[in-house]
Amino acid sequence: MRFVVLPALMAAAALAQETPTEREAARDVLRKMAALETSLDVPGWVARLTAPNPARDQVTGRAKELMESELLALADEITRHPEIGFQEHRAVEQLTTYLKAHGFEVTVGVANLPTAFVARWKSNGSAPNLGVILEYDALRGTKGAFHGDQHSAQGPVGMAAAVAMAEYLERTHAPGSVVVFGTPGEEMMPPNAKTDMFEAGVFQGMDILVRSHSTNTTSRPAPGFGTCCLNIDGVKYTFSGAPAHQMTSWNGRNALEGVIHLFNNIDSVRSSMRPEARIQGVITEGGAAPNVTPDRTAADFYIRYPDEVYLAQVREFVDNAARAAALSTGTKVKIDFYGKARDGISVATLAEVGFAYMKRFGAASVAEAPGKPQGYEETGSVSSAIPGLGFDAQTSTAANHTYEMEADALAEIGHRGFVVDAEAMAALLFDFATHADYRAAVKREFDGIKALFGEYQQALKKVYTVPNVPEPR
After folding, report:
1. May I ask the CATH architecture of the domain 41-227+345-453?
2. Which tens digits make up the pLDDT trace of 355-371?
């Protein structure tokens, strides 16, 4: 075990840098990270923590009992009544009612978000502070809201682990606190709910944060920094024109032409961007009637790149494409940068222990090699500041964001994976709460990787040069 895990981890870490430029810039950083991981002896922690432990098994057994007797049914109920981001009032009522019935004191509407909440165990005491993130928003689809990412079960899974762990702390009078965070609108910007909650200080004081998420393969990330879905700028471009009869359209200015030119201008500069860039946009407003020159249109974009340093150049291309579109059509454009997602941090001290527990509790479709490093939540703001882990036991055979994945949330494959996540989450929280030396190892790894991330970004800034374009003569 000791001679297999670490090489696999570091090979996956090297793959996290998704472009040749990133890999070259990260060469020294990855060498330092390899030395850090070796010094931590992650396989030793896995062997020690997952050894037989009746007290831990009692906690995980309680989480399983709660899932099978109550919380799988609640997950099914939320699945059948999907609510899109920031409109999850029914789900929040059900989740918070359950938490209150199990000894948590709940505050709804934190960070000025009506469907965000914080629930604290009534007997919370000292550190360590154990945080559990719940999600519950559905996807927006052409047929209406649907739980194609199985967020409907993330609340029940997290509550099972939180309640089981809180009961253990109270029963044994062991030090520790349990806090549950209801985080809405994961699939939507703006606002970026976790970032807004983080900036409002909602997660302040947490020593660890855990969550679960749907997947078709049981996996865990390698240590390092990264994100599941590239670094993202969320930007809305709103064009303003002047109305006129379409038979005499010269009396107005066509905002629809402006937004069409925006898309065309982006295509015209793609050859000047690195090929890993992803620019994804939809027209959200295109006019009201064929016989009236559109005087207002809008397009919503996610602008993506593997790292945030070059993303700034991609963003400048798109902003300038919008300005040029407005100039050429006699319209005006408003550029609204409304949200972002950035790299987070993953640590092997948590990921490998959590992965071992998922396998122990019967997770299916196991990927033995670690995946690329990525934070446990998509915004990066939280997972780059507080160590944590996202649990990913197989819950579907389908791809994410599909109707088939929603159907699997109600089926045996989903139920089995949800129970595994709850058990593994409870086990990791138990280990973190009851082993001070383990907490110290997690903190040392997290702090070390965070410092290396700063070195990595400085290295990228040196290599992402901008060509010098002279004035025409």
Report:
1. 3-Layer(aba) Sandwich (3.40)
2. 999 999 999 999 999 99
